[in-house]
Amino acid sequence: MRHWLAPILAGCFVMAALPAMAEDDGDEWDEAPMQSSPCMGQPCIMGHPGMGQPCMPGQSGMAAPGAKRPAPGMGRGWDALNLTAEQKTKIQALRDSFLQQRSNEREQIRQAIDKVRALSNDPATTDADLTAAIQAKHELLIQAELAHLQHWRDVRKLLTPEQLQQLDSRREQRRNRMEEGGQPPRR
After folding, report:
1. CA dist., res. 24 & res. 104, Å (int)
2. Percent of the chain beyond pLDDT 70?
3. Which domain holds residue 40?
4. 11 pLDDT exceeds 60?
5. What is the reported pLDDT for 163?
6. Is there a single domain that holds both residue 100 and residue 132?
7. For the segment 96-119, what is each residue's pLDDT rounded down to a tens digit?
8. Which of 21, 67, 133, 166 lies most in the core, judged by the most C-beta atoms within 10 Å?
9. φ, ψ at 102 (rounded to 5°)
């Protein structure tokens, strides 16, 4: 491959991925159809049975089309923390509030990305206009990240010291698996 072609292809890939990255920031706590786990009696995501349990008949091992990931306390490892009913209720309330806020933020970010794209394709656009649009987009992304981090802080406040230790330990194990060449950790 020619030396000049690789950077161009890499740049095209990054530019093509930007809108998708803005739509899904990797946050795993989106809306999710919930079902009872036939193997553990705990809530789980369709196709994602409880910790270490095999898929039961009728489960493909993959989420159903259109299915999203679980909220904190609502699946994938959170059942191992033995949350109380009160903790689950409070976490669910935080989740509902966060998802509503996030829905509004996502739409604003999408519009900001579209504006930057439109301005970048308009030959009449000045550098100042394009810079202002890019800065506005980045400000929205910063606000969304801050809201996400605040949500996590609020959820963590509901956990006991033992639950926090267990949660942090599990997260560290996932990071270590990634560093050893395993599957990427899910944040």
Report:
1. 14
2. 56
3. 32-70
4. no
5. 92
6. yes
7. 999 998 988 999 999 999 999 999
8. 133
9. -65, -35
Based on the domain organization, do 172 and 137 belong to the same domain? yes
- Dihedral of CA 173/178/179/181: which sign? positive
Alpha-carbon distances of 30 from 35, 68, 79, 122, 131, rounded to whole Å = 15, 6, 17, 35, 31
Which parts of 15-164 are beta strand (E)? 34-36, 43-45
In Å, how far are 90, 111, 135 from 85, measured between CA atoms? 9, 39, 43
Specify the 3-state DSSP secondary structure of 6: helix
Specify whether 113 is located in the same domain as 179: yes
The Cα–Cα gap between 85 and 87 comes to 5
- Number of compact structural domains in the chain: 2
Inter-residue contact 84 to 74 (CB < 8 Å): no
Alpha helices (runs of H) in the chain, residue ranges in sequence order: 5-23, 85-121, 127-157, 161-179
Going by C-alpha positions, the residue among 178, 169, 184, 151 that lies closest to residue 73 is: 151
Report in angstroms the alpha-carbon separations of 153 from 159, 163, 178: 10, 14, 24
